[in-house]
Amino acid sequence: MVGILTSIASLAGTWLEGKQKQSAAKATAAAALEEAKAEVFKRKATSEQDWDFSAMEGSHNSWKDEYLTLVLSIPLLLCFVPGMEDVVRNGFAQLDSVPDWYKGAFAVVVSASFGVRSFMKFWKR
Length: 125
Hints:
- By secondary structure, this protein is an all-alpha fold.
- Helix content is 86%, strand content 0%.
- It contains 5 helices and no strands.
């Protein structure tokens, strides 16, 4: 009888030890998953910062920012010139007929020049 009880106790101890190891393995896996998610988030943020920095560095010797600022400012300035209101209104009416691919291409050029994240923040408002 004592032998049977000893065997049962040993079996229960082994089972309990297995459950503890299984629980520890799950906790370790969950911690590793959270660490991996944090690393991915960190790399994404670093990548976005690197992109913005590269865009800024590339624009130091470029005139495209000034050109785009001028082009985008023309309608705004013309709104304050008496008699030019219809010209601005007609110009924007004509832009409505421009193909979507052209509008998209222009949006990409502007966003690349001024920073993609800045452009996206502007349109989310």
